[in-house]
Design brief:
By secondary structure, this protein is an alpha/beta fold. Helices cover 46% and strands 8% of the residues. It has helices spanning 3-9, 31-53, 55-61, 65-86, 101-110, 123-139, 151-156, 161-169, 177-190, 209-212, 225-233, 252-266, 289-300, 305-320, 341-344, 346-353, 362-370, 381-385, 411-418; strands spanning 220-223, 242-246, 272-276, 323-325, 357-361, 392-398, 429-434. The protein has a seven-stranded mixed beta sheet. The N and C termini lie far apart (50 Å).
Length: 446
């Protein structure tokens, strides 16, 4: 089927997404359409290929012939899902042992009948459904219930020389806004290491990024680092100061999360850092509980003295409760935007409210904070959050989707002249902060 036939059959509009309209694959001149048409089928194919290629190895590690048969069945299920994606079929209910089955089925039922398929519904919903459906095939098997089909890719992204260089460089740091700002930028650009998207970039993670990251300052479209610093300094030192990370990518990015988290503890800007992981393989490279534990083990056993010293110290932080993996919540793997969290998962909302600051990492968290809405780029961040303010929050995100807010008038037009696809490349970043109404922290942007 050629492109014109596809567009006609599946009601695709050859237009950009109108302002204040939800993003979806219906609009051909959108990254949503490109993702559904090109990227997601490739990711499903890669999972199929890796299972097929590694079936002997996987079978040996599990239950032999039984596992081999289950791999064959799962490959068939993923192939069917790929066909459903490519032909805009309606979402199917979850009917197995999924812990979040009721949440997902209720969500699907809440969608309009003509908006329950991949191209007709919101882009965010389609992506989340695809990744959730894939894992359901594994968790409903007998021998592969917890198998992470993305693990090898994530592990490889941690094994970079740059990690050693950073560990060596940061053995001693001072408590200053300048150092904090540089670590935040390191953490921001670490978000470029996203395995679900191959990014053409002028940022090479194998450079000495700590020393060189400031040369990309003109690519940070909003920098509220000073507001975050002031917020941390304003915390009530007579109480426990909790900072939460809602994590994004495993590997190199999670390593930069830990670097920043350790700095917060060492400089008495926090007394506890809590890390929110995903309960399943998610958007290829997101941190799962297994990735969380693996990172500390990998570092503590590394041949580099700098890294194994770090790894052992961070394992001690975990033992002492200074680093804590938050209770795993399936809400993070739901399609639900964060402004609905209070009504859908009040317990999680209250848990976040215990923190003095919550740091939302990466593009997907940004999309869930904003909702997959084509906001006017000059719209205010507070408006786009739609009441989601459990506590002070910030978001560190390299731009890999066409949703954004809080930019100055004319900035988007300037960027589009440089590169019409600037919102897809990850070459630009945001460091956004929003104080909760109970906080006296400064609101001004840099």
């Amino acid at each position: 089927m050629d492109s014109s036939e596809f567009d006609k059959k599946y009601n695709i509009v050859d237009a950009v997404t109108p302002t204040h309209t939800l993003l979806s694959g219906r609009y051909k001149k959108s990254f949503a359409y490109h993702t559904l048409k090109e990227r997601l089928p490739v990711i499903l194919t890669q999972i199929i290929d890796s299972l097929t290629k590694e079936k002997d190895e996987i079978s040996e590690q599990h239950r032999g012939e039984k596992t081999r048969e289950e791999i064959k069945g799962i490959v068939g299920q993923i192939s069917k899902l790929k066909y459903q994606l490519q032909t805009d079929k309606p979402f199917e209910h979850f009917q197995g042992c999924e812990p979040d089955r009721e949440l997902w089925n209720n969500f699907i039922d809440s969608l309009p009948e003509d908006g329950r398929s991949f191209y007709q519904t919101v882009w965010l919903y389609s992506e989340c459904y695809m990744y959730r459906k894939v894992f359901s095939f594994f968790e409903n098997s007998e021998t592969l219930k917890s198998y992470d089909y993305f693990f090898k890719q994530k592990a490889n992204s941690l094994a970079m020389e740059q990690v050693v260089a950073i560990a060596k460089r940061l053995r001693s740091t001072e408590k200053s806004y300048e150092t904090f700002s540089r670590l935040v930028k390191l953490n921001l650009w670490g978000n470029k290491c996203d395995l679900s998207l191959i990014i053409p970039t002028n940022f090479d993670p194998n450079q000495n990024v700590y020393d060189s990251c400031t040369k990309f300052d003109d690519h940070i479209l909003v920098d509220n680092s000073k507001n975050i610093w002031d917020c941390l300094l304003a915390a009530d030192q007579s109480k426990h100061i909790i900072v939460d990370f809602v994590l994004d990518n495993a590997g190199f990015e999670f390593y930069t999360d830990l670097i920043l988290a350790e700095y917060l503890l060492e400089k008495n800007l926090a007394t506890k850092v809590r890390f929110h992981t995903k309960p399943m393989p998610w958007f290829v490279s997101d941190v799962t509980p297994s990735d969380f534990r693996y990172t500390f083990e990998y570092l503590s056993r590394h041949t580099s003295n700098y890294l194994n010293e770090q790894g052992r110290r961070w394992k001690q932080y975990v033992a002492e409760g200074k680093f804590e993996m938050a209770k795993v919540s399936y809400f993070w793997c739901s399609p639900i935007e964060y402004y609905k969290m209070r009504e859908v998962d009040l317990e999680l909302y209250k848990y976040l409210a215990e923190a003095h600051l919550v740091i939302f990492k990466g593009d997907l968290n940004y999309r869930k904070l904003m909702g997959d809405m084509n906001w006017d780029p000059t719209d205010d961040f507070l408006t786009c959050l739609r009441g989601f303010q459990p506590t002070n929050l910030c978001t560190l995100r390299t731009v890999k989707a066409d949703v954004i807010c809080g930019l100055k008038q004319g900035k988007v037009e300037e960027l589009c002249r440089l590169n019409p696809k600037w919102m897809e490349t990850g070459e630009y970043g945001l460091i956004k902060f929003m104080e909760t109404s109970q906080c006296n922290c400064s609101h001004d942007s840099k």
